[in-house]
Amino acid sequence: MSNTREKTINYFNDLDTFARKELKYHGIKRNCPICGIDNQDIALPKAKYVFVKCKKCGLTYIKNILPDTDTFYENNKKYEEGWRNTNIQKTKELDPQEKRILKSVKNRGNLLDIWCGFGRTLYHFKDYFGSVEGIELNEYISKIGRDLFGVKITKDIEVLEDSSYDCIILHQVIEHLASFDLFKKVHKLLNKDGKVFIGCPFMDSLSMRILKQKHIHVQSIAHINMFNFKSFKAFAKKYGFKIESIKTDNNIDVRLSDFLCIKKGNFFHRHNRIRFNRFSSAIFLLTNFFLEKTNLLSKMKLGSYLEVVLVKE
Known about the structure:
The protein is 37% helix and 22% strand. The protein is of the alpha/beta class. The longest helix has 24 residues, at 3-26. It starts with a helix and ends with a strand.
């Protein structure tokens, strides 16, 4: 196994150990963050954390969470350590999702990327929008983005209360939020004809159905909300948005790097130590190759990630 891979796996294990200790002494219980009710069934009986599914809206969420998720991402050195293992490349090449965003946005005035990380998407979009800026809680991460990419990244969304945006991006954010009240501010910041783009893990994906509690999406305390189509519709309605489009990507969530890390006839799924045998590895590899060529997974709405476009109701 490569040294980088080992460091990444160790990081996730250390973060998991930290989270479990914090939950034992400081964890808090919550109701459904969409409905606000305590009416749920256990969703993943064998998972590390207590995942439940709301009987009303269908959201799957962790019942017991850390008391302050913002502080966890803002000050946690173990969280920063994971970002230090990230390979940051200064390239203008757009990824497939960024291309889809550009295709959907007609008014390319002001863009805001919330929890933008290093700001790579901001850098990619500098030439396409009138202005681009981001929000990132962790100062270590945002400083690298400002220095490397020359983009505007601030920490507090409150300073933007007099601003307005034609495009707001929340990519891999909503699954981390203890409360969705952030979207009250997003609604206020969005122009009348503006669009919100959200990407997040999909609870009803093919890979989740196969791997269940073994899936990397539910292997840590980071992902505390797992959406499906039903729960996203309930969420959008509550916060005053209309869903313009909702679909999945075409990803079965198995990477070639998983197979490059084969050890004693097994491979590791993403950044954890869960092993699969040669037969499972071959099935996953062949299936992924077939699905990528046919776009079948997206057509069947079984991809690993949801891609949602919201407009004001």
